[in-house]
Write a structure and sequence with these properties.
6 helices; 3 domains; alpha+beta
């Protein structure tokens, strides 16, 4: 029967009663983390899939330089398009969709940098940036079962920008390149404060979650007095950490998104006067992001790329966490006791009787011997010392087609 987390830290306290239960748990968790990050253990290898959805290009769009909002004409957008990529014209960068406001309105991760639309323009929504699962630690390999080859993983963004800065190449992919990290923020947004004019916070921010990386102050200024949703509609401009320069935009009773997840709600029967000014304070709360990978050339259609990856080991204190089958509890106990023997005690007048540097070295040596045996056993499950050399000098299976060509030719 496998040892449990509770059994191991209780054994630590039996040998080192001066330590608290919290300290004993911490030593065992640290021991497990050291073991998990020591090598690519077979129990950390997992299977995943990068799935590309169908291309979306129905209708046309209107784009405004400096704004994150994209307005659609004849589009049918929905929330499934969040995290997909948006582009309109090869000379312009590729953006990521962060919010879908309606079937004809969405938000980009950065303000549109191209020229403002004079006429409705064509666009594309597809996926070329892929994010692995939440327990991801590192990528092992990615392959294309349809073309029967493995994608190259050693190409960097600098090389892709040299080969295809516009990302205009389309077709069968043979490169997966690390791009960046997801920007995961779940910050707070304060109630709206009216700086100038009458009224008691007639604007609301119900349900908004700030997704920006730094604290920000959003300002909203009424530039045309009027009502919400009736004749003489009021208009406003807005800004982030500066004057209100974006707009003018007609007020509406439906949610209106500014930037970084901040949405404002105008009262259906509200009336606003020229010069009214409101502010919103937003504070970020960072959540660790995940790596994003670009698969190139881009395939703008449904496709699947299976992959193997090394998972990040769960903390033993996590709910339902169990010790892996191939990690022995006595090994973690020795590592934890080495920490206990290096701990002098809670205070000078309350020394730790277990404190002994020679004893710590002995526990560490025992643990190392056990770890070598665990590594040998793991190699019997998944051999780590075998490597395969890529003999071709170009990033694809063969110049004649997929790998099956080599299998059927006398070369």
């Amino acid at each position: 029967m496998l040892d449990t987390y509770n059994q191991i830290w209780n054994k630590v306290m039996l040998r080192c009663p001066a330590a608290s239960s919290l300290l004993a748990r911490d030593w065992v968790q640290n021991a497990f983390r050291q073991v998990a990050e020591r090598r690519r253990w077979s129990w950390l290898i997992k299977f995943g899939q990068f799935i590309a959805p169908p291309l979306v290009n129905q209708g046309r769009v209107l784009l405004t330089q400096g704004l994150t909002t994209v307005t659609g004409l004849g589009t049918e957008w929905d929330e499934s398009m969040i995290t997909r990529q948006f582009r309109s014209g090869n000379p312009n960068p590729i953006y990521t969709i962060t919010q879908v406001n309606s079937s004809e309105s969405l938000e980009l991760d950065s303000p549109w940098g191209g020229q403002s639309s004079r006429f409705p323009e064509p666009y594309e929504i597809y996926r070329c940036y892929f994010t692995p699962p939440h327990d991801f630690q590192s990528l092992m390999n990615v392959w294309d079962p349809r073309m029967n080859w493995r994608l190259w993983m050693h190409i960097q963004q600098e090389e892709l920008n040299t080969w295809d800065a516009q990302r205009a190449n389309r077709g069968q992919a043979y490169v997966v390149a690390q791009l960046d990290y997801t920007r995961d923020y779940v910050g707070t947004i304060s109630p709206v404060h009216q700086v100038r004019g009458a009224g008691s916070r007639p604007i609301r921010t119900d349900g908004s979650i700030y997704t920006g990386p730094t604290p920000a102050v959003f300002s909203i200024e009424i530039v045309l007095g009027g009502f919400v949703g009736t004749a003489g509609v009021a208009e406003y401009m807005w800004g982030k950490n500066g004057p209100a320069v974006n707009g003018p935009i007609e007020v509406d009773s439906s949610p209106q998104y500014l930037q970084d997840g901040v949405a404002i709600f105008w009262p259906e029967d509200g009336a606003f006067s020229f010069g009214d000014v409101f502010t919103i304070n937003a504070s970020p709360i960072s959540v660790p992001g995940l790596p994003r990978y670009e698969i190139w050339p881009h395939i703008v259609g449904p496709y699947i790329y299976p992959f193997f990856y090394i998972a990040r080991a769960a903390d033993l204190s996590d709910i339902n966490a169990v010790l892996p089958r191939y990690i022995r509890g006595d090994c973690l106990l020795e590592l934890a006791l080495a920490e206990a023997a290096r701990w002098p005690g809670p205070a000078a007048d309350r020394p730790n009787p277990y404190f002994n540097m020679q004893l710590a070295a002995m526990h560490q040596a025992r643990a190392e011997k056990m770890l070598l045996e665990l590594e040998r056993q793991d190699d019997e499950t998944y051999e780590q010392d075998v490597t395969f050399k890529q003999t071709l000098g170009f990033p694809m299976a063969t110049p004649f087609g997929d790998a099956s060509w080599l299998q059927s030719q006398a070369v």
